[in-house]
Design goal:
With about 300 residues, the chain is α+β, with helices and mostly antiparallel strands. The protein has ten helices and 13 strands. Helix 4 packs antiparallel against helix 10 and helix 5 crosses helix 10. The protein starts with a strand and ends with a helix. The model has no long low-confidence stretch (mean pLDDT about 90).
C-alpha cells in the first residue's frame, strides 16, 4: 500500500507504508458456492409460487442485494444486481445502474420492517416506560381507508386488532411500532443507532483505506431532531432511517449473539490471521430472548400459513 500526493509526483517520491509480499495467499471469508448462488438468484429470481403475490415488474428487471454472514462477522456471500448497466429502455434509472449494493446505498435506502426488532430491543432495555404487555388497538383510521396509528398506516388493511409488543413483532404491526417510536427521545434514537452500528463503518475495511472497496457510512443519522410524524416513521424504519444490507446483517448478528461483530471479508494474508472481533451490546439476555422468541414465533406462523 502506498500513498501519493501531488507534491510526491513533483518530487518523484512516494510513501510505502505497507510493503508488498510476493507470493502470499489471500484467504477470504467468502464461500464461492454461496456467492455464485446468491448472484444467480438475484439475476434470475423465480418469485413466490402464488402468482397473486408476484411483483412481475421487479421480476422482469430485478434489483437488489444479498448478504449472508456468520454471527462472528465473516461474510459468506455479498452479491448485488445488476452487474451491468441496463439501458434498453432509454436513460437508465438508479435501479438499473451496476452499483455495489451490499456496502453502499445508491440513494436514500430505508430498512423498513427489518428495523423493528432493534427498536423493540432498545425500548425494552433503555426506555423505562416501555411495557411489553401494553395493548394497542390496531384498527381502522377515521378516514376509513385502512388501519393504522395517527398518520401511519398498518401493513394489514383491516388492522391486527389488540396487539402487545410480542404480537407486534410476530405480525410486524406498523401501528404498534409507530406508537413505540413516540416513546423515543432524540438521544434515544442516536444511542440506539450507535448500539447496533447503524450509520457506522462495519469493520469490513479494517485493513485500511484503499481504492476498489468503498463503504457508505452516514454518521449524520438521527442528528436532526425528529418532529411531527418522524418518530412514528422511525419506529417502522421508514423515511427518516436508512441502512445498508451489510449494516443490517451485522446488527442481526448482534441480536443473535449479544455481541456486535466487526465484519470480515479477509480472513488471512499468508499465515497472518486477522482475528474476528466484536463488542458486547448493552442489552440483557432476557430482552434478547424476548425479541428472538417473538420473531421465531412469527416466522413459524408465516411458514405454516
Amino acid at each position: 500500500r502506498e500513498v501519493r500526493g501531488l507534491q510526491d509526483l513533483v518530487e518523484r517520491s512516494f510513501e510505502l507504508d505497507v510493503p508488498p509480499i510476493d507470493g502470499a495467499d489471500l484467504t477470504l471469508t467468502l464461500d464461492l458456492d454461496l456467492q455464485e448462488e446468491a448472484a444467480a438468484v438475484l439475476a434470475a429470481p423465480e418469485g413466490p409460487p402464488d402468482p397473486h403475490q408476484c411483483d412481475y415488474a421487479w421480476l422482469a428487471r430485478p434489483t437488489g442485494a444479498i448478504v449472508l454472514m456468520r454471527v462472528d462477522g465473516d461474510v459468506l456471500a455479498a452479491a448485488s444486481h445488476p452487474v451491468v448497466a441496463r439501458d434498453d429502455r432509454g436513460p437508465a434509472g438508479i435501479a438499473d445502474a451496476p452499483f455495489e449494493r451490499t456496502l453502499r446505498k445508491p440513494g436514500f435506502q430505508p430498512p423498513g420492517s427489518s428495523f423493528k426488532p432493534f427498536v423493540a430491543l432498545y425500548a425494552l432495555e433503555h426506555i423505562a416506560r416501555t411495557d411489553p404487555q401494553r395493548l394497542l388497538e390496531c384498527a381502522m383510521l377515521p378516514d376509513g381507508r385502512g388501519a393504522g396509528y395517527v398518520d401511519v398506516r398498518c401493513n394489514v388493511h383491516v388492522g391486527h386488532g389488540a396487539v402487545d409488543l410480542r404480537d407486534a413483532l410476530k405480525r410486524s404491526c406498523n401501528s404498534y411500532f409507530a406508537m413505540l417510536g413516540e416513546q423515543f427521545s432524540q438521544a434515544d434514537w442516536s444511542a440506539m443507532a450507535a448500539e447496533f452500528g447503524f450509520g457506522q463503518p462495519t469493520g469490513v475495511r479494517a485493513l485500511g483505506p484503499r481504492p476498489g472497496l468503498h463503504e457508505d457510512v452516514f454518521p449524520q443519522l438521527f442528528q436532526r431532531e425528529l418532529t411531527g410524524r418522524g418518530p412514528r416513521l422511525a419506529g417502522n424504519g421508514l423515511s427518516v432511517v436508512e441502512a445498508t444490507p451489510m449494516q443490517l446483517a451485522r446488527a442481526t448478528a448482534a441480536l443473535a449473539t449479544g455481541a456486535l461483530p466487526q465484519v470480515r471479508l479477509v480472513q488471512r494474508v499468508g499465515v497472518q490471521e486477522f482475528p474476528a472481533q466484536s463488542r458486547p451490546i448493552a442489552i440483557s439476555r432476557a430482552t434478547l430472548e424476548f425479541v428472538r422468541g417473538a420473531m421465531v414465533a412469527g416466522s413459524n406462523e408465516a411458514g405454516g400459513s
